[in-house]
Design goal:
The chain has helices at 2-5, 45-59, 63-75, and strands at residues 19-23, 40-44. It has 78 residues and is α+β, with helices and mostly antiparallel strands. It has one domain (2-75). Strands 1-2 form a two-stranded antiparallel ribbon. It is flat and about 40 Å long. It binds zinc ion. The site of zinc ion has 8 residues, from strand 2 and helix 2.
């Protein structure tokens, strides 16, 4: 349903591979909207993964999480 509406392409980058249907408002925040077409968007695998990680970070911004993120960033070449 959502994929058809979005033209079988990722709404972020227009990619057409590894398409997944994403919940704009996470299901845990809005369970009543989990089957609402307005709350669904088509994303490719990489874009979906990036969004999910961002949400996870936003939800748990405890000191442990920040320390962990800094550690991850410091070990990355960029
Ligand atoms: Zn994409």
């Amino acid at each position: 349903m959502a994929k058809r509406r979005d033209g079988f392409a990722c709404v972020k980058c227009g990619g057409k591979h590894r398409l997944e249907v994403d919940h704009i408002a996470p299901v845990r925040d809005a369970p009543e909207r989990s089957f609402d077409l307005e709350n669904l968007q088509t994303l490719c695998g990489p874009c979906h993964g990036a969004k999910t990680r961002k949400e996870a970070n936003l939800c748990e911004v405890g000191p442990e999480r920040i320390k962990w993120r800094e550690l991850l960033q410091s070990t990355r070449p960029n």
